[in-house]
């Protein structure tokens, strides 16, 4: 059986390893079937996408909508490399699932508008499926309304031409969309449970998502959340393409 590939861009080892653990947990994949490449660590090696059952793109520190002059050399390189992969992924309609940063990269790549209009604080929000979402096989078994963890400085304000809106929320109209039949992106984080998002809050308390002095209050708001549905998306992705 072919493995899946996780593309990560988190520079902090603790955050990168926790992200990998989250994807392993919710996909149900053994470690041998989820290969990880840390894109921030160096140039992307040559890849043959047919070697993989599907691609997963994690979140990270980069914002696609940042002014080019403010982007680091590493961010610009990662964007070029992800863009080249998406050229092939979309052209061939290969299985792809991007979480959070996936919205920014896929949305921008496909001609959508990604900016800071619908940024959301680190929180649990109610996400609602659209009619298309209720019919999409990747969302099988997902309630029409469910709680999900978010925390992002940018979001997709206008869908790319031809993209299908699958889920939305009151504070961020584009929570999930699909391009063609097999290319997906979510704004929310399906790889996170309460323990994982609390860990991420501690790691990124100085990253501008909230004032460091608010860390304890943010954790207090997150801890009671009941977030159980989003992880099923990852299990469905593996079941469908693995």
UniProtKB/TrEMBL annotation:
Gene3D superfamilies: 3.40.50.880
Pfam families, A to Z: GATase (PF00117)
Occurrences of domain Glutamine amidotransferase (ranges): 49-192
InterPro entries cross-referenced by the UniProt entry: ChyE-like, Class_I_gatase-like, GATASE
GO cellular component terms given for this protein: cytosol
NCBIfam families for the chain: PRK07567.1
PANTHER family: GLUTAMINE AMIDOTRANSFERASE YLR126C-RELATED
Stated name of the protein: GMP synthase (Glutamine-hydrolysing)
Origin organism lineage: Bacteria, Bacillati, Actinomycetota, Actinomycetes, Geodermatophilales
């Amino acid at each position: 059986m072919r493995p899946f590939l996780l593309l990560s861009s988190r520079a902090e080892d603790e955050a990168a390893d926790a992200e990998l653990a989250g994807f392993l947990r919710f996909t149900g994949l053994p470690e041998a079937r989820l290969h990880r490449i840390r894109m921030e660590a160096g140039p992307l090696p040559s890849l043959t996408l047919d070697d993989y059952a599907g691609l997963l793109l994690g979140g990270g520190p980069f914002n696609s909508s940042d002014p080019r002059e403010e982007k680091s050399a590493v961010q610009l390189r990662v964007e070029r490399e992800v863009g080249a992969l998406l050229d092939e992924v979309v052209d061939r309609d290969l299985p792809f699932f991007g979480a959070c940063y996936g919205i920014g990269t896929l949305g921008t790549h496909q001609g959508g508008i990604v900016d800071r209009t619908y940024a959301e604080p680190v929180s649990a929000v109610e996400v609602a499926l659209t009619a298309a979402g209720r019919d999409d096989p990747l969302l099988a078994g997902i309630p029409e309304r469910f709680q999900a963890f978010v925390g992002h400085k940018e979001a997709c304000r206008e869908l790319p031409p031809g993209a299908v809106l699958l889920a939305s929320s009151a504070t961020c109209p584009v929570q999930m969309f699909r391009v063609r039949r097999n290319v997906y992106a979510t704004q929310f984080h399906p790889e996170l449970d309460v323990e994982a998002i609390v860990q991420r809050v501690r790691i990124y308390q100085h990253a501008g998502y909230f004032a460091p002095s608010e860390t304890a209050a943010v954790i207090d708001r997150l801890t009671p959340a009941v977030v159980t549905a989003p992880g099923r998306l990852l299990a469905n992705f593996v079941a469908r393409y693995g």
